[in-house]
Predict the 3D structure of the following.
Amino acid sequence: MRAGLVSGLIVVLLAGLCAPVSAQWKWRDAKGQTQYSDLPPPQGVAESSILARPASAKARSAASAASSAEAASAAAAPLLLPAAKTVDPELEEKLRKEQQAKADKAKLEEQKVAAQKADSCSRARSQMRGLDEGFRIARINAQGEREVLDDKGRADETRRVKAIIASDCK
């Protein structure tokens, strides 16, 4: 007898815990995905897209059905409500600091790339002066031997250096 009373009490408690779950809204968004929330769907969601609503909202929805014709005519000019501030100020500050850190990091990276391009530009211009003035240019080949560029090699090198100047010297 006592075990039946305890199990009955447990069932009643569990049913009481599940009651807040019944206060859930369920609707399909514009992308066709099912959304669940304890808040009503946004203003733009059609009545036919609402799949489930809390029992307390069902009574109100019958009263609001009469005014839905007015709402349909006003749908052409959507109502803009101020966004409710639900974010913790400390969290907002943390997010702002993270965004600032990301922006600083991106700016630092951009400066680093700009410095590398400036160095590359300087080297390419120096190389181009040497090519224009007719200096002999030698390279080390795969066998470790030194070889001087011929006319075709100079022309190839000139094209390569001009491409570097075009991309890095702006």
Observations:
- Residues 108-168 form one domain.
